[in-house]
Amino acid sequence: RRFIAIKQDVSEREQRERALTVVANVSSALRSARTREEMLPVILDQLIEQLDVEAALLAIHHPVGDEMVIELGRGLWQQASGEHIPPGKGLARWVMDGDQAYLSNDIKSEKRIYKPELFIQCRSSAGVPLSAENQKFGALFIGSQRALQERDVRLLRSVADIAANALHRSALHEETRQKVYQLNALRTIEQTINTSLDLRVTFSVILKQANDLLGSQALAVFLSRPHTMWLEQAANYGFMGKEIEELRLHIGRGLAGQSILERCILSSEDTPEPFESSSDQRIFAAEGFQSFFSAPLLVKGDVKGVLLVFQRQSFTADREWREILQTLATQTAIAIDNHEMFDRLQRSTANLTVAYNETIEGWAKALELRDQETEGHSQRVMQLTIRLADEFGIRNEDLQHLVRGALLHDIGKMGIPDAILNKPGPLSDEEMQLVRKHPTHAYEMLASIKYLQPALEIPYCHHEKWDGTGYPRGLKGEEIPLAARIFAVVDVWDALTSDRPYRSAWPRKKALEYLREQTGKHFDPQVVEVFLERVLPQLPHSETE
What we know:
- This protein is an alpha+beta fold.
- It has 17 helices and twelve strands.
- It has helices at residues 2-30, 36-50, 91-98, 150-195, 199-214, 254-262, 278-286, 319-370, 377-391, 396-407, 418-421, 429-435, 438-446, 457-461, 482-496, 508-517, 525-535; strands at 55-62, 67-75, 84-85, 102-104, 124-132, 135-144, 218-225, 230-237, 248-250, 266-267, 291-299, 302-311.
- Helix 1 (2-30) runs antiparallel to helix 2 (36-50), helix 4 runs antiparallel to helix 5 (199-214) and helix 4 (150-195) packs parallel to helix 8.
- The N and C termini lie far apart (138 Å).
């Protein structure tokens, strides 16, 4: 008896040592595998080698469709790779659901095997469930032409534990990586929405990112036109033909129209009539689409259109996929809403700017009606000031302020009595002092109007002189704003070459001599030079005589 007891102890010890060796070898082989695709052949090849069997396979449960899929078969079961086992059928599903090991040395008589012809090369088979963190997700099987023992099942369990944990970690890593990718894609879309003013560019970025996130083959955005009850194509991606660009869909009909009415994502499987007409059915059939989805573009309770997603193979969406589509649809709707708000803002701004300018022109005309000797003067100097300012590189908003200042340059004369303003003869010293206050009056009138503050340089400073003898502040040289220096030359030129009640217009030659004589005194020499050499030669003859 003592001899027999020692013999059994040695056998159990060898089994434990072998199990440790198998575990160590499988673990070592898995260290170099990072992805699921790399892990599966390593696991199965190690099973075949370490357990001395001829076949192995790994089946995974796919929640979408509730089916088992043989992810990979090796050895004699290699041809079983990729087989889909319907819900409730197959030995793999029985093992996973029962959470128990399976062992049979007469596999040919096993009735639970789905497609037994794929496994007839083996005499025996053993299988164990795959689980990690109390979640069952598949089954691991070995097959052999020899009889399998309980010790083989124990070794299979040890390998299954390693494999399940490795696959679970890989799934978590892949899920994390995918989430990071999704966040980056959504961030790219968000940045485009916030920075791009061109809706076509925004649509292009959204559809490209959406195609990658959803794994689709084509997408299209259709915008709602409520007054006509039509959906019109605005952007598309992935289509082989151009027919989609001419397609119009009716709100309330077909898959796209129904998704708007129901305000939810619908698939071609959700309705018996996904196509509105034979024309759109023909277009989608020509593209080879098997499945498509419609997501309404909703923002602030308003429907902007639909986002259509197309697959060229049969496709069933899971919850996560639909959540991504919903997020993309929401972002697309926000992009459209932002563009519409910006467009409305642009129109409002343009209308407001027109109103501002018309108001300013009205003030200038009112002043001219009061001061008849300067009729048309404001418009003439405004146009001439634009030409001269362009030579100094004044553009855009700065030019707009300059134009307003030119139109309002004499607005301060509203504070001068009519008797002085329209006096036909020379003014007394006291009257001249009142006239010289009109730049100060202009400042006092306009400084409180915020949008006119940048235009104050001309009304306030156009009577300053280069040598410092001007008024109201006696500014000198470049202390005088450039806009005022430019306008001073234009203002004097127009005054000299226009008829006034107290004198006739000067001849062009005499006015030119005066500008040259006052260069460095009244006027900025550089401004006079540019005016005489670049602006004056371009004026029509009637404007210079």
